[in-house]
Amino acid sequence: MKSFTRIVFVTGLLSIMLMGQWAIEPQIEVRIDELLAKMTFAEKVGQMTQLSGTNARYEEMVRNGEIGSLFNVIGAKETNRVQKIAVTESRLGIPLIFGLDVIHGYRTIFPIPLASSASWDTALIRKASVIAAQEAGSEGIRWSFAPMVDIARDPRWGRIAEGAGEDPFLGSAMARAQVLGFQGENLSDPLTLMACPKHYVAYGAAEGGRDYNTADLSERTLREIYFPPFEAAVRAGAGSVMSAFNEISGIPASANEFTLRGILKGEWNFNGLVVSDWNSITEVIQHGIAADKLEAAVKSLNAGVDMDMQGGCYTPALEPLVTNGTLSIDLINDAVRRILRLKFRLGLFDHPYVNENLHKEIILNPEHIQTALELARESIVLLKNEKSILPLDSKRIKRIALIGPLADDQQSLLGCWQCMGRREDVVSIRNGLKNRLGGNIVIDYAQGCEINSDNKGGFKKAQQAASQADVVIMVMGEHANMSGEGHSRSNLNLPGVQPELVSAVAESGKPVILILINGRPLTLADVEPQVAAIVESWQLGIQHGNAVADVLLGNYNPSGKLTASFPYTVGQVPIYYNHKNTGRPPAGGVESLNSKYIDCPSVPLYPFGFGLSYTTFKYANLKLSSEAIPVDGKLVVSVQVQNTGKRDGVEVVQLYLRDLVASVTRPVKELKGFQRIALKAGETKTVEFTLTKEQFSFVGIDHKMTVEPGELQVMIKDLEQSFWIKD
Ligand code: BGC
Known about the structure:
Number of strands: 25
Helix content: 25-40%
Shape: globular
Mean pLDDT: 96
Bound molecules: beta-D-glucopyranose
Strand content: 15-25%
Structural class: alpha/beta
Strand order of the largest sheet: 10-15-14-13-11-12
């Protein structure tokens, strides 16, 4: 037992030097040694147990040292009350750590992650995470089960709403921003949250987009696509990682030695703690690799899951397995060490309680609301704007018909994971328009239909409103509970009779502006030709209505770019921009034998990276610092971007690479850099990217990162240039 402890300690110390993640602190390890020496087996597995909520039975367990963490315990008074039991009534006084799903805000609800990723604004996303941590921390929550960094290439999967979309490079940047925001400068600050990137791993690769379904993936795809955001989060110092529900090629993620012990704790030297997902250890029984909870526990412990969320598999019943040699006590000690290490790092031993008045000045303060507005505006993506109908000319418009089942809705705008968000905090689109228009224009509201029903009873009133209006604004899409966990769809159209309502209203001949509220890419091929403009507004949180009104009226020039492709039809799914070329890339007519559909395009309707602005940008002078660089060399890429329109605007400059010939096939393009730049009307800026081996390397034939000599292409917008990497 001792020798293992020492090995863990020594490798931990080594990792300070090897990795960019947080350092092991020797004085903390000594305190852990002291505690471990005093703990009974039952107290050890107690630390490894996490349960949701609280009640008399759980509190008795806390008293007995049988629980290490509770989640979903709400309110400063309540967390303090339960913490007091742990600290003053349990034998060793080890504090609890309180967790919660603080996914896109605590009480100040920000846009859902799929939306905020469309801002490509890592600094603002980091700021929103700081705010979420302050609000949650002020009520005693110190652990957020976020960020969700699962890559999602399938919009049928409802949890696409919770992540940053389809790209590993952007996903890694978003993961880093959120971890740094949640955890702050110093995790012992009570207004920080320990981050928990999830769901490790390949959860988003569920077959058919059906939540919890099997993922069957090569090691290459894991390494190229699904691992990178997790690795980025770990390198940014994430204190914990959550293991997923799904199986990965035959082994459930929560009992997967390769991904957990091999990659996460091995290759990446992760010294934080791994928590299971809700009951996911017990569920390995359903998966069919364990006969009972004990066997499930042993498999998950061997794999490296340190804490059991809600499953109750880590219990004193495991002790005889240690005695008979089936289970190593070293694994238990290592798990407890990781848990205690985090509790020390969070400062819970020194300040276990929260100031019960603090939350009053922190929660929903004006700066938080302002940040929610800014992030909401930046998350909006303008998909269509025929004849520049937007922004609306409020001087010429007298009457607006505001139609649709989401036009006056507040609840749906909070999205999935509403946390402490409240309906009454939310500005609906109807109210946002009223706020910004201030009574000068008549707004004629008609619901038209429900979100998901076949009742057309409201069509007539909607058509009447449209026929009397100068312009029609239709607010359509999904209810918040149509995406998120366990809410996959097989059809990506606007639900219910909404498409028919669009057609019925469009018959009026009045220009229709479609505002979408949704938690995933939708298929819009049928409605797109019937409307003049499409504004993708996702679920933007408490400031949704104001942000949309600002975009409609031109107070804010939209700058969002999609982070997940919008297919023409669900039959194209999975569809993503960084696909391989195949031996027969799509070209030629319907009769030619190549990789295409005979009944729809092979590209999406709106691709990754797409989004319009009220101004136009011209790209020119793509320059590379060199035509050839050595394998460890760097390349400076510059490009001129000019705002050629009449309005100030923000452009997201995106740099893609393609490796033309390599030892393994490479995607047709891969994002390797991006910058948000603000340009005044007429202004030109030169944007520079420095590329190094981090951008040139890929997962080689031996599954190790490698840079190979050869020709690569740099692509920015419609410009492209080649360069060589030389031996
Ligand atoms: C979800 C996780 C979440 C956990 C705790 C699970 O059902 O998959 O994302 O963190 O519940 O609420």
